[in-house]
Amino acid sequence: xxxxxDDRDADPNGPERTRxxxxxxxTWAAFDGTTIVAxxxxxxxxxxxxxxxxxxxxxxxxxxxxxxxxxxxxxxELMRRHQDDARARGFAIGxxxxxxxxxxxxxxYGLATEGDVLEIPDARTLELAAPRELDExxxxxxxxARALLPAIYAxxxxxxxxxxxxxxxxxxxxxxxxxxxMRGGASLRRHVLARRGGTYVGYVxxxxxxxxxxxxxxxxxxxxxxxxxxxxxxxxxxxxxxxxDLFPHVSWWNAPxxxxxxxxxxxxxxxxxxxxxxLWLRVEDxxxxxxxxxxxxxxxxxFAVEDTTWELVVEGGHAxxxxxxTESAELVMSRATLGALYLGGVPASRLARANLIAGSPEALRxxxxxxxxxxxxxCPELF
Length: 383
Ligand SMILES: CC(C)(COP(=O)(O)OP(=O)(O)OC[C@H]1O[C@@H](n2cnc3c(N)ncnc32)[C@H](O)[C@@H]1OP(=O)(O)O)[C@@H](O)C(=O)NCCC(=O)NCCS
Fold this sequence. Notes:
Layout: H1 14-21, E1 27-32, E2 35-48, E3 54-65, H2 74-88, E4 93-97, E5 110-111, E6 114-120, E7 136-140, H3 142-156, E8 164-165, H4 168-175, H5 180-183, E9 190-196, E10 199-209, E11 212-213, E12 216-217, E13 220-228, H6 231-242, E14 249-256, E15 272-277, E16 279-283, H7 286-292, E17 299-305, E18 308-315, E19 318-324, E20 331-333, H8 335-342, H9 348-353, E21 357-359, H10 361-371
Parallel strand pairs: 3-4, 13-14, 17-20
Antiparallel strand pairs: 1-2, 2-3, 2-8, 4-16, 5-16, 6-14, 6-15, 7-9, 9-10, 10-13, 11-12, 17-18, 18-19, 20-21
The chain binds coenzyme A.
Coenzyme A is lined by residues 3, 63-65, 70-76, 98-100, 102-103, 106.
């Protein structure tokens, strides 16, 4: 299917790779005669929730409808199959990345993580605000990256709500896949580690797109991923990415919104940012999902989603009670809004200002104290 406009179908190993990632039982296709005209699939992911627990997530992917068959309800039917299957297999949560922000709210998904599209047209102009201690750097080849990156990633995102656990298969078939459609004419991935003593504390992966302008270097360095266990390692890797000779134009399609860069330079307007939506979540099982995460504030709140009112009581950072109640709700929201609230990236009071939650200012303040996560959610993984 060519819905995303790339030529991944032309990759001779494509079908085999797709089969490995998508078990047959979790893929759906609509046929017109013998021709496939629409597809969808579920990938079983592990979602890191506030506190670091991993909640199994039904990840929707490969949603495509042929232009000849659009707007006839095929997506709606595929969504029904996907969600029925997810519920039957006991998933408390479903997630997806959306090609357009307007599609999935109607299916109960709310925006749970955001990222920034960063463009630094000339990194040489950035002025560091204050010197700081940095880590060592180590250039590594692809086989070494395959061996070392998974453990560094796991350590770096262990407490990051919205990040996904990566299986060996995922690393092999998605993170290290070098199909032409993924490169879009840029170089192979480069890998650089940050090292402190004998321990690896982060890595940056990037591609290069050489270029010259009037005889001057104008190459582009495209960050694929930069993850670090702490701010010092993060700053170290930024220093590297911003100072590759001949590549002054630096970009990253999905930087965490709390990255260290903007506050590390005096002239942050040299960094252009566009906020982008990331992971969309649908909470299938409210009790299981809320029991999985921790909360930064204790308290109690009653909220209604669809026709059920829930009583949530948090003590010591954990939901000690989350069950239906016959008492009246203090907050009323849709299932999609609960998905937006779930990882703690956006306060309930802000959603209320957007008319997505109804409730008193006092109940909203209580919900803010309970739900908002001190660690900002981020999903490094597009699937
Ligand atoms: C997006 C896409 C899957 C929609 O498929 P479709 O079969 O035309 O959708 P349906 O006819 O089932 O529409 C279901 C509902 O979603 C709405 N909808 C569909 N596509 C939409 C879009 N791009 N933006 C906003 N609403 C959309 C329809 O209007 C309909 O709403 P309604 O039930 O209130 O009338 C299809 O256009 C497509 O393949 N696009 C290119 C690839 C892509 O973007 N895939 C999604 C990847 S996340």
